[in-house]
Amino acid sequence: MYRIGEFSILQNVTIKTLRYYDEIGLFKPAVTDSYTGYRYYSDQQMKDFQRISYYKDLGFSLEEIKKMRESSHPDDYLANKRNQLISEIQEKERQLQQINHMIEKPKRIEFRPYQESAIVAKRVTLKKKENFFTEVEKVKKEIIKLGYTPIYRTVSNLEVGYVEEDIDTFVGYTVAEKKRIVPDGDLIFLGFSKAPKMLVGHGTTHEVSSLYQDMVQYAHENQIQIRGFFTAIFQNEEIEMYVEAFDLKEENEDYIHHLEHFHKDTTLDPSLVGTYQIREILPDIKHMFQKEKQKSMLDTRFAILELHRDGSTNFQDMEWNQSDLIFTYQGQEIPLPLRKTEIDGKEYLEVLMNESYEFHKSQRPMEYLYEKIK
Q1: Among the listed ranges 43-47, 156-160, 175-179, which one has the minimum average pLDDT value?
Q2: pLDDT in tens, 106-145
Q3: How far is CA 93 from CA 69, 99, 285, in A?
Q4: Which helix (H) or strand (E) element contains residue 238?
Q5: Any residues with CB less than 8 A from the CB of 248 and at least 6 apart, and which?
Q6: Residue 90 falls within a domain, yes or no?
Q7: Least crowded by CB within 10 Å, which of 147, 248, 324, 362?
Q8: Does residue 199 share a domain with residue 165?
């Protein structure tokens, strides 16, 4: 018989481990002295303990080993572990292929002028992103019936931010024809348009999620403001993704024009007096297709906006007149346009808000849509 210290040396294991195995009922000593509490192990237990160590090396947890030792069918556990390892190997091989592809052809993200393709697409809510490939083939048949020549599959993500389920999209194809021949209906001709600059990413079809993240990170690191929605074009196993964007280091010509023609002392519009609650924050109100679906996180200090009769507001650094909210920031006045707008026959207050005051001459403001509550 061996005392616990001797057995631990022979098996190259700590005394603490042997005591723990005893406590959980995985491996008990042959004899425990009821008077001293000393643990003693037999020669026959040598191989038994080595088998436990062997199972650990194969990746079994202590709980699994205990259940396997107590089971009348231990081979079932071995078969399950084999299947698990096969799945893990297959996943590692897939990841290795992606890494090799990225080394051979690195993903590139550019900020440059970009000529968009002509796209014919249909408004579709994808339950899951994998459903895209089924839905786009349905749309392809409709496109061909209209006389278009489909080239590459495309998807425009109309969501504010990246989501995995119930994705609001345009699904369709780039087409060879450069003219609109789509009648009014479900299909939409997105046309050829050239934005001042686009953020453009290149990768593989397996990198859609990471490409979104990398493009957003690139924009953040290079002071680029993303606007509008992301569109992906699938070219066999390759993907090109683009989104309208603006360089915050360059002046916004539209806003500079607004500054030059701004007059603080414009007469107040008494019909605007009241209390408003934020309804949506959107890159562009024209993209708010599904009114019943909340598309933005309303995390803003301007959730409630009060326009008082004397031109003041519920914010100390903000005034208003007939056409602008006026911020005072570091001694300068920053006007932000406001106007009434109508959606589905209901009147709202639309404010081109910019909460990043230091970038007000370059950043494109976001549309803040307010509903009057009193």
Answers
A1: 156-160
A2: 568 888 888 778 899 998 899 988 898 899 999 999 999 8
A3: 33, 10, 45
A4: strand 238-247
A5: 223, 224, 225, 359, 362, 363
A6: no
A7: 147
A8: yes
The boundaries of the domain holding residue 216 are 109-247
Specify the length of the chain in residues: 374
Q: Are residues 258 and 230 in the same domain?
A: no
- Regarding whether 237 and 122 lie in a shared domain, the answer is yes
Q: How many domains does the chain have?
A: 3
Name the pLDDT band for 183 (thresholds 50, 70, 90): low
Percent of the chain with pLDDT over 90: 21
Asked if the model's pLDDT at residue 275 lies above 90, the reply is yes
The burial of 159, by beta-carbon neighbours within 10 Å (0-12 exposed, 13-18 middle, 19 or more buried), is given as middle
Q: State both tokens at 180.
A: 């609109």
Contact 121, 187 (CB under 8 A): yes
The predicted-structure confidence for 218-239, as pLDDT tens digits, reads as follows 888 888 888 778 899 998 888 9
- Whole-angstrom distance, CA of residue 213 vs CA of residue 149: 32
Same domain? 243 vs 127 = yes
CB 121 within 8 A of CB 153: no
- Residue with the bigger pLDDT between 83 and 207: it is 83
**pTM listed for this prediction:** 0.57
Query: 287: pLDDT confidence band, cut at 50, 70 and 90?
Result: very low
Same domain, residue pair 230 and 260: no
Cα separation, 13 vs 15, in Å, equals 7
Q: Are 200 and 184 in contact (CB under 8 A)?
A: no
Q: Taken in order 163, 169, 174, 179, is the CA torsion positive or negative?
A: negative
Helix (H) / strand (E) element for 92: namely helix 74-104
Q: Is residue 76 part of a domain?
A: no
Q: Are residues 340 and 355 in the same domain?
A: yes
